[in-house]
């Protein structure tokens, strides 16, 4: 009796396993036969950047229409290769390509975020948070801080904002970009041959001599107090030059 129950249980388990294998194989066969009818593209515009359009993504996916995705079977579409095509675009930070149960392709993209615009006689490019240079776009112009550098410095070179010296300047740009007040007030940043920074302002038409990108937070706090307590009294047009390079002082002219 005991052995009969054991044999029945074993046969039942084998039957269930066979059924599962059959269903899995059937499901896989159905999925393999699915035809891509649609490509869904989602571009995350978290920072209101519009450097990338859905039509541009479609062109990347299909090699400008030479390799269309719609009408093709699952085994004919290499998702990893499609991801690599999209990630080759300078304004793409992250990309994911997947397939839904109907066989359609879903594309999700996060865009790169410029924090400044680097201007020189040789180039006009954006800088992102990691110091990478991004090309300008015909689709959208980012409202970011323009930066000029002296021809005598190496700041116009591709790797400057990523090396041990340039990282301090990149940190300064990120500080400004994240601060609502200074992001709105500063109109232009210049790096001179000695590596000293100066700014032009939106309000007051002043030149702020900042010096090297050190003690950044302390310098801006000192200048903000000056703006808050002194400028309303003497007037915003009183001074054309403010030097905050030296510790615990502001030189006004």
Task: Give a description of the structure.
- This is Cell division protein FtsQ.
- With 253 residues, the chain is α/β, with parallel strands linked by helices.
- It folds into 2 domains: 39-111, Ubiquitin-like (UB roll) (Roll), CATH 3.10.20.310; 114-252, Cell division protein FtsQ/DivIB (Rossmann fold, 3-Layer(aba) Sandwich).
- It contains 7 helices and 12 strands.
- It has a 9-stranded mixed beta sheet with strand order 6-5-4-7-8-9-10-11-12. Strands 1-3-2 form a 3-stranded mixed beta sheet.
- The longest helix has 31 residues, at 2-32.
- It is elongated and about 85 Å long.
- The termini are far apart.
Topology:
Blueprint: H1 2-32, E1 39-44, H2 54-62, H3 79-87, E2 92-99, E3 105-111, E4 114-119, E5 124-128, E6 133-134, E7 145-149, H4 166-178, H5 180-185, E8 186-191, E9 197-201, E10 207-211, H6 216-229, H7 231-234, E11 241-243, E12 251-252
Parallel strand pairs: 1-3, 4-7, 7-8, 10-11
Antiparallel strand pairs: 2-3, 4-5, 5-6, 8-9, 9-10, 11-12
């Amino acid at each position: 009796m005991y052995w009969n129950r054991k044999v029945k249980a074993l046969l039942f388990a084998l039957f269930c396993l066979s059924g599962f294998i059959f269903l899995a194989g059937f499901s896989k066969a159905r999925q393999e036969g699915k035809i891509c009818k649609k490509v869904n593209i989602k571009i995350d515009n978290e920072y209101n950047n519009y450097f990338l359009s859905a039509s541009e993504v479609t062109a990347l996916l299909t090699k400008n229409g030479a390799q269309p995705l719609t009408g093709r079977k699952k085994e004919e579409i290499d998702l990893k290769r499609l991801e690599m095509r999209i990630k080759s675009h300078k304004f793409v930070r992250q990309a994911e390509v997947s397939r839904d149960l109907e066989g359609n392709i879903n594309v999700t993209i996060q865009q790169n975020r410029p924090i400044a615009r680097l201007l020189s006689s040789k180039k006009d490019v954006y800088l992102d948070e990691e110091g990478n240079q991004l090309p300008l776009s015909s689709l959208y112009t980012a409202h970011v801080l323009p930066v000029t550098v002296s021809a005598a410095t190496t700041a116009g070179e591709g790797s400057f904002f990523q090396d041990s010296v340039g990282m301090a300047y990149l940190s300064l740009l990120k500080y400004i970009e994240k601060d609502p007040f200074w992001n709105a007030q500063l109109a232009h940043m210049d790096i001179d041959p000695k590596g000293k920074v100066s700014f032009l302002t939106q309000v007051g038409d002043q030149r702020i001599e900042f010096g090297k990108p050190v003690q950044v937070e302390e310098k801006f706090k000192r200048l903000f107090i000056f703006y808050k307590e002194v400028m309303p009294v003497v007037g915003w047009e009183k001074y054309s030059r403010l030097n905050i390079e030296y510790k615990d002082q502001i030189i006004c002219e």
